[in-house]
Amino acid sequence: MKSVSVELRYPDRTVEEVRAMLADPEFRQAVCTYQQVEDSAVTIEEYDDGSMTVDLDRTYGTTLVPSFARKFVGANIDLVQREEWSSPTQARFEVAIPGKPGEMIGTARLAQSGPDAVETIQMEVRVSVPLVGGKLEDLIAGLLKDAFRAENKVGLKWLAGQWRV
Asked: Is residue 60 part of a domain?
């Protein structure tokens, strides 16, 4: 099992602004465009109590995946992500790779830290493949960190009104 911890900082922004951005399907698609995913779909359902459910399906090419991993993941990597926000500031994540032996589960928390909004993400990556499971966990953990950093990069521009595809 591999632990992933990422802090995404949004300077001079409120938790409410970041939460609204995370609830915007166009923002989620902008992140996919930035990451050059091959295919993506996003569905967001918001509820009156401030909770929401985000379903995000992405297909990544494997040109940057090491050869040892390609035989396990195939020609592309499909990630199916579900975020269950129990409140405007707390979420539980599950990321699956359909048909592959692995799972990622974790939490996200939005908080105000002085003038900045901060999203803290904690995840556990498990891949149950003998001999190379640990290497695959490291690979997937790295991909997840990159994906969250890409979300932060796009988010900073998005919130500043500077995002252009």
From this structure: yes
